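A quick aside before the break. I want you to see a complete sequence-to-structure record at least once, exactly as it would be stored in a machine-readable document. Don't worry about memorizing anything.
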Amino acid sequence: MPRRRRQPARYQLITQSLPVHNLQHLEPSRNDFCETLPNNVQDRPDSPEVLLFRFREQICPMLSFTNGQTNIWQTLILPLVHNSSSLYHAISAMTALHISNGRFNLELYARGLELMQRSLYDLRIEVCGQAFKTTTLATTLILAVWTRWNEELGNGNSHLRGAFSMFTDVWSHFNKHGVGSISTTEAESLAFLMSTCFSIDALTSLVDSVKAKDDYQSPSTFDSSIDSDFNLSWFLCSQTIVNLDPWTHYSWGIGRFMKPVASISYEVKMATGVSSSMITKAAVLKRQIYEWSNDAILDLLGFEEGLLPMDAQYMVHTAEGYRYGTLLFLHQAVPEAFDNNIQQLAIDTITHLASCPALSTMTFAQIYPLFIAGCEVTGVEEREWVKERWAAMIARMRITNVSRCWEITQEMWRRRDAHCQWKSDNVIIMQSMDQVVGPARDMDPEFSIKGRLHWAQVLKDWNWEVSF
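That is the input. The structure line, written in tokens, reads:
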């Protein structure tokens, strides 16, 4: 009796099946693509041709932040719809839900939900199959990304755990058969999908750590021994993948610090106080993040110092935004490990993000650092820039998570300003009584991850979820 694949925990999928549409290959890339379709297709925004075209033109840049022939979702993943019903339905569902503009177009929104259910049903069949398929992993990540961006759909972390369960099978396969057992195209696709999943997992761990429930765990199912032995040098550092999607390597470079930062954050959140060992670990991690450099990545890309093209400069500045944003997150967890003012870290983060114009696709990657630094800044100019950048991202991305991040940011400003005003009034009274003034604003415990004036408290008060 052949062994059935183990389904990931809490990854139960229910829906109805539908045969794959007989799809035409999407070669044309002209802006007038839809205008060249037959009228009966143009008038149907839920037709397979229109949905797949819009996925390529509107969604793909939001998924890998690169343009044209270097966008792996366009060049490697999208063509796989010919081989997978679940992937086709997932991509079509994601696009229909997106272009329905929330629930503005109820008919298209309902169609998107129907396609999502069909994808889930087909995916359950694939997960129970014996042979691993790249399309199964691609479908799972599509569902994970979209349900995390639109929290009302739920199950984002469940899909992410499902993806990591699949990686365990990939790991076992390569240990047994070697990397040469798959084609170059499939190897490239797997490398990209795996790095994408690791990046999502790292960002998820930061949010989960400040929510700090007793049952906190990362979506990753890799233990430390597997993670350390995993052949990341092949998956993440090959020259081919660097050329295909440079941002994968930028994000991985700084992303590997996020899990340790999340771990310290969780320790602090659950402890009654900050111990000397926590401070020591935070200080070591702070130094490693400060010393991190993307020079090795630039060398792989073949760029000489001072001669970076504009797109590469935007990647560098966004990566620096991630670096300073992660330092800021660590400062909120263990301020005792820092000598510098947290406001300076917030301004440094904003400065790098501002070096990337709002119309660049790299802004799609800036949700995390913009949220972390945006909640912290107090200056009028900085806040005005944050407001404008969120407005631009909301207009271009049209996903509920971005809108939520902006609403939470505004609530943080309101609460902190009210607190600072109250504190200022009390300081005047104390000074008139010759009493000692309390700690500086950036060291106020209420602004730390355990305080009432951290964005995690807003999530708790409003019963919201947010994803980076």
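Two observations worth writing down. Residues 1-33, 221-237, 429-442 have pLDDT under 50 and may be disordered. The longest helix spans residues 400-432. We'll return to this after the break.
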